[in-house]
Design goal:
There is one protein chain. The chain is of the alpha+beta class. The protein folds into two domains: about 230 residues, 3-Layer(bba) Sandwich (FAD/NAD(P)-binding domain); about 90 residues, D-Amino Acid Oxidase, Chain A, domain 2 (2-Layer Sandwich), CATH 3.30.9. The chain has ten helices and 24 strands. Strands 1, 2, 3, 11, 12, 13, 14, 22 and 23 form a nine-stranded mixed β-sheet that branches. The chain is globular. The chain starts with a strand and ends with a helix. The protein binds flavin-adenine dinucleotide. The site of flavin-adenine dinucleotide has 34 residues, from helix 1, strand 6 and helix 8. The site of flavin-adenine dinucleotide (FAD) has 34 residues, from helix 1, strand 6 and helix 8.
């Protein structure tokens, strides 16, 4: 892979989250794949652990297709048996996963999940370079020449194909002139904590309120996340930014607050705040590059589809990359065209879900989502 001081790869992937790792583990048995990530520790943002996401039951089929199902089960993530919601009316509604042919969903330990995917990619032959990030990216003949910074050094890397798996910032695609369309201003603030021993339910909770909505889910090792979603330009966003204000606001949210008391939830002072808007990249592929996961399509957390989409696009892009590297000129545009129906179906479902809540049509958060 090293030629005259230059590292040579068929595909260089920027971003070793679920999308980048899924791409790498599927392509590495066939081609030389190098994955780089600016963070050496998976799923941490500025030293703070990520929110703690749920994985949809249908991910089972994808993981099985990639030969990962048994290995995923051995990682010991917590099963998600269903959800409780207060949405569209004051009553609590429960939906379980018992009739789902794919079985339960999963409450993920994100650091463990991302670390596992990176290890699988490496075991299938991908090279992993962390912490590392591209300083420059230039066209060189039919491929690319990157200068990458790692461990205080600058190293040149030549690649035939570049993959943007860098999350919502689309760090590579933006350099190539691709545009990100952002559909809303959703943000999320969260607080982590612990449930009392033996009182943790395997359920996700969602509750609507006048300026947004709440989410809570158990996390592995007796932990729990409580999150508030609203729009960045609303006064309520100040409560999402600050963990103490968030918990004060929560006490006015009766059903969820009662449920957390029943679990004996105690915050542990950890939390975070981030953008959570829907967005899409156009185009999602170009001459010698493509984008996967959030870099291509960013989903509202209400959909619980982001990680599923990261795994799916990682797999689909690896199949397209294999054809592209074997000389098929239609492979990359075909991959990008396949994202359009996914985006359309996502928008239609999201609109339908937000449309179910009509109690606060006079409030900006809900009014914006009804008129789309
Ligand atoms: C508040 C919130 C709640 C969510 N809840 C859920 C949920 O319950 N279920 C669900 O399925 N999804 C959920 N999601 C979505 C989910 O987190 C994302 O869809 C998923 O992480 C996307 O994976 P990815 O690999 O595309 O990107 P990421 O996980 O963001 O990984 C991108 C990687 O690229 C690296 N990177 C970025 N820029 C560079 C650079 N310049 N150089 C090198 N490396 C770089 C980063 O360090 C990172 O490791 C939620 C999202 C948010 C914001």
């Amino acid at each position: 892979m090293i030629h005259a001081g230059v590292i040579e790869a068929d595909a260089v992937v920027v971003g070793a989250g679920p999308a980048g790792a899924a791409f790498a583990l599927n392509l590495a048995p066939l081609h030389r794949v190098l994955v780089l990530d600016r963070r050496d520790s998976p799923a941490l943002r500025n030293g703070v652990s990520r929110i703690g996401e749920s994985l949809a039951p249908a991910a089972r089929r994808l993981l099985a297709d990639m030969g990962l199902w048994e290995s995923f089960l051995a990682e010991g993530h917590s099963p998600c048996h269903g959800g409780r919601s207060v949405w569209g009316g004051p009553l609590l509604v429960e939906a379980d996963n018992l009739r789902d042919l794919d079985g339960p969903g999963w409450h993920l330990d994100r650091s463990r999940f991302d670390g596992w995917l990176r290890r699988v990619a490496a075991s299938r032959g991908a090279a992993l370079l962390v912490p590392a990030q591209p300083l420059s990216v230039d066209r060189a003949g039919e491929g690319w020449l990157l200068e990458v910074e790692t461990a205080g050094r600058r190293i040149p890397i030549r690649a035939r194909l570049l993959v943007d798996a860098g999350g919502r910032g689309s760090p590579l695609a933006k350099r190539f002139g691709a545009r990100r369309t952002v559909s809303d201003r959703l943000v999320c603030g969260w607080s982590h904590g612990f449930d009392a021993p033996g009182r943790q339910s395997g359920l996700t909770w969602i509750e609507a309120e006048p300026d947004g909505w709440w989410y809570s889910a158990p996390l592995p090792a007796g932990r729990r996340v409580v999150a508030f979603h609203t729009d960045a330009d609303l006064d309520a966003a100040a409560d999402a930014r600050d963990a103490a204000s968030l918990l004060r606001r929560l006490s006015g949210c009766t059903v969820l607050a009662d449920s957390l008391r029943a679990c004996g939830f105690e915050p542990d002072g950890q939390g975070g705040f981030c953008a959570a808007h829907s967005s899409s990249l156009s185009p999602a592929s170009g001459d010698g590059w493509l984008a996967v996961g959030d870099a291509a399509l960013g989903f509202d957390p209400l959909s619980s589809q982001g990680i599923f989409n990261a795994l799916y696009t990682g797999l689909a892009a690896a199949e397209a990359a294999d054809r592209h590297l074997s000389g098929d000129p239609a492979a990359l545009p075909g991959y990008a065209a396949g994202l359009t129906p996914i985006h359309d179906a996502y928008r239609a479902h999201l609109h339908a879900w937000y449309g179910l809540e009509r109690r606060w049509q006079d409030r900006p958060f809900w009014r914006r989502r009804l008129v789309e």
